[in-house]
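Tokens in:
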């Protein structure tokens, strides 16, 4: 793509001063960028190699493999991950349904999902017992952890 005046094209913006901005850069934006300036006195060319550092997600805070809780108690399942681009956190519940994090906290029945990935089961009952799987995913890969909740 060639940009020859201050303009914005998709995620790319060329400023009046000649600066190029790439929003939401990904590993696919790596390469050599060419800046060419032409005046009545001549032309100057500069190349800029760009490396975008990215890595697959890794879960850094996870729930215990087995959790015991009494009915009516709250249970917190941590699932925080690092990754570039930022990993999306999804929980698979015992009934095989899925909850995905968003920009805001979300309430699904008695389950509260934080944007960072933690899942809180409020006032747990026998119906909440079972396997819970946390998956962190970005374009480079995924990581997952599973825990079993016993309600007794």
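Residues out:
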């Amino acid at each position: 793509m060639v940009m020859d005046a201050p303009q914005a094209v998709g995620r790319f913006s060329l400023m009046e001063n000649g600066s190029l901005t790439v929003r939401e850069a990904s590993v696919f934006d790596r390469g050599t960028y060419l800046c060419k300036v032409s005046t009545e006195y001549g032309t100057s060319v500069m190349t800029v190699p760009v490396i975008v550092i990215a890595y697959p997600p890794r879960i850094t805070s996870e729930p215990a493999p087995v959790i015991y809780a009494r009915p009516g108690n709250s249970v917190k399942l941590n699932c925080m991950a690092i990754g570039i681009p930022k990993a999306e956190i999804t929980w698979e519940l015992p009934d095989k349904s899925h909850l995905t994090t968003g920009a805001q906290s979300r309430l699904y029945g008695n389950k509260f999902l934080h944007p960072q990935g933690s899942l809180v089961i409020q006032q747990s009952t026998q119906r909440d017992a079972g396997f819970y799987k946390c998956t962190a995913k970005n374009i480079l890969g995924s990581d997952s952890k599973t825990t079993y909740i016993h309600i007794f």
